[in-house]
Amino acid sequence: MLKKFLKYALSNVMGMLALSCYILVDTYFVSVALGADGLTALNLAIPVYSFVHGLGLLLGVGGGTKYAVLLGEGKKENAQALFARMLRITACIAIALALLGALGSEMITRWMQADPQVFGMTKIYIQVILLFAPGFMLNDMLNCFVRNDGAPSLAMGAMLLSSFSNIVLDYIFMFPLGMGMLGAVLATGLASLLGAALLMSHVLKKTTALSVKARPCNVPKALRTLPLGVSALVGEVSSGVVMIAFNSLIMGLAGNTGVAAYGVIANLSLVVLAVYSGLAQGAQPLISHARGAGRSGDMRRVLRYEMTAMALVSAVVCGAMMLFPRQIVQVFNNEQNQPLQWMAETGLKMYFSGALFAGCNIVLSAFFAAAEQEKPAQIISILRGIVLILPMAVLLAAAFGMQGVWLSFPATEGVVAALAVMFYFRQKL
Questions:
Q1: What pLDDT score was predicted for residue 215?
Q2: Computed from CA positions of residues 251, 170, 32, 350, in that sequence, does the dihedral angle turn out positive or negative?
Q3: In the prediction, which pLDDT does 217 show?
Q4: DSSP classification of residue 372
Q5: Which residue, 29, 40, 135, 367, is the most exposed by fewest CB within 10 angstroms?
Q6: Handedness of CA 86, 88, 93, 94 (dihedral sign)
């Protein structure tokens, strides 16, 4: 079982790390080409990307988990029918989002509270992200199903292809071609199409259990799998909601410079959380298949492997943030903005003190979802994503200013981690 865990988890973590690398490189290129205003615009627009990505994971994780359980139960035809239905549902939602991008991007930009100084860059990023929603959602959904179909290496390959092509296109569009923010977001959109195309090559093979053949579209039956993906959706969407709330709080406390400092921390946080998600999603096929086959001992064994790996990652992250905050922030502070430097350094050390708690919550939430225990998975995700973090941020910001904003993350994750551990020991798995 350890060998299988390493194959699935490491493949997915490598893919998620590649995805994270392009997020960091994207942030770095924007900081070099567009300065603090570019970072602010990027930070204001990222929640829309989180929402689109979250919907793709809702369909992919929810459907993919049920797909693996059905395969574990020996119901291959039911699994194939589920995939075909989820593919069509994904297409319908993605097309609706693309239309929203064409018609409503200015309205959404105003909701994000972009001021005139960064409005244009924020709007173009939001508009193009939504126009490319079909590519993003198809990529996310197919990645989950391909991984659950026994091809974790291909799923990793698709993420690597998307990430590295994004980096190359980012550079070409933003520097030699001088396309600014349009170049940054266009590179991200085109890269998602390349990843989706590679994954479709697996789906179209005759040897795979996946099938795109037309089948009666029993939408209610397909939608019943979505509760298993809610924790993944909440994890992504809540990061966008939290960014919007934090941007609003920080704008009042420290203006655009504070938002830019938070942009550095938020993007680094996306990288760390992506590694945790990589562990959780990588192990999901093994847990779900064991669930379908009735092997509870294997489920618990995989969880032990996950928690050990998560703890090691957390130790590295905390050590880096505590020992090298100045060097890390300087990478993104191309203008040598001293107020930004000071705020981001302070924020890094406080914010990432909650890394271990966050990793525990992500792993346990995904474990419950993979084992078809959707209620504890949803409670953990909703508590840490929206219900506790927002009032915690408001209260601590009122009491301690910017330091309170940074401390709201470890405080929330710590409380939820205690509840998550309690849920685990109460579940009979």
A1: 56
A2: positive
A3: 52
A4: T
A5: 29
A6: positive
Alpha-carbon dihedral sign for residues 206, 212, 218, 222 = positive
The alpha helices in 294-401, defined as continuous H runs, are 296-323, 325-332, 338-351, 355-370, 374-382, 389-400
Confidence at residue 419, expressed as pLDDT on a 0 to 100 scale: 95
Residues 311, 141: Cα–Cα separation, whole Å: 28
127-150: buried (b, 16+ CB within 10 Å) or exposed (e) per residue? bbbbbbbbbbbbbbbbbbbbbbbe
Encoded amino acid at 146, one letter: V
Beta carbons of 222 and 82 less than 8 angstroms apart? yes
- Tens-digit pLDDT profile for residues 45-93: 888 888 898 889 888 888 888 888 888 888 888 888 888 888 888 999 9
Rounded Cα distance between 276 and 280, Å, is: 6
Which tokens in the block code for residue 394? 């408001």
Residues of the chain where predicted confidence (pLDDT) is lower than 70: 1, 206-207, 209, 211-223, 240, 428-429
Specify whether the CB–CB gap between 380 and 331 falls below 8 A.
no
- Assess contact for 417 and 360: CB atoms under 8 A: yes
Contacting residues for 94 by C-beta, under 8 A, at least 6 apart: 133, 134, 136, 137, 138
Counting Cα atoms < 13 Å in the Cβ hemisphere of 356 gives 11
Q: Tokens standing for 160? A: 């690597």
Q: Give the closest residue to 112 by CA, choosing from 236, 258, 259, 233.
A: 259
Residues 6+ apart with CB under 8 A from 50: 236, 237, 239, 240, 243
- The predicted structure's pLDDT at residue 232: 73
